[in-house]
């Protein structure tokens, strides 16, 4: 009986730590193609397979095309935000190469709390 209780406690701790990680603000600032971050900034191609650490990240395989909509700036410049088909999320800029720049100038704006929520089946997952 105590073994089952130990396993449940471990699962609870793992679940809590995953929740904290998936709502963590990754940066206070981001760069976009316009003040609303609606314009695509660039088209990139994956140079390696990428598997993100949680549900906020975009997973992809080498050779796939991704459209970039914003880039985190200042305290976390390595993460870009983009889409591949219906999938949307963060990824390391080191995992892609720029194929085409679609904007003339980047605009730096404050991030929002909703920038760091998981999106599942077209619904935000508020954890």
UniProtKB/TrEMBL annotation:
It is found in: Endoplasmic reticulum membrane. Residues 39-101 form the SH3 domain. It is a single-pass membrane protein. SUPFAM superfamilies: SH3-domain (SSF50044). Residues 1-22 form the signal peptide. The keyword rRNA-binding does not apply. It holds the Pfam family SH3_2. The keyword Transmembrane does not apply. Keywords: Coiled coil, Endoplasmic reticulum, Glycoprotein, SH3 domain, Signal. One of its GO terms (biological process) is endoplasmic reticulum to Golgi vesicle-mediated transport. GO terms for cellular component: endoplasmic reticulum exit site; endoplasmic reticulum membrane. PROSITE patterns: SH3 (PS50002). This is MIA2 protein. It comes from Calcarius ornatus (Chestnut-collared longspur).
């Amino acid at each position: 009986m105590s073994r089952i209780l130990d396993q449940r406690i471990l699962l609870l701790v793992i679940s809590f730590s995953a929740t904290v990680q998936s709502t963590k603000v990754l940066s206070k600032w981001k760069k976009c193609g316009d003040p609303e971050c609606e314009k695509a900034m660039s088209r990139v191609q994956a140079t390696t397979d990428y598997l993100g650490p949680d549900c906020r990240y975009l997973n992809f395989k080498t050779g796939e095309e991704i459209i970039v909509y914003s880039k985190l700036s200042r305290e976390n410049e390595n993460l870009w935000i983009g889409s591949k088909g219906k999938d949307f999320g963060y990824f390391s800029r080191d995992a892609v190469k720029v194929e085409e720049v679609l904007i003339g100038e980047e605009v730096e704006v404050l991030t929002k709390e909703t920038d760091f929520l998981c999106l599942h089946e077209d619904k935000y997952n508020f954890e």
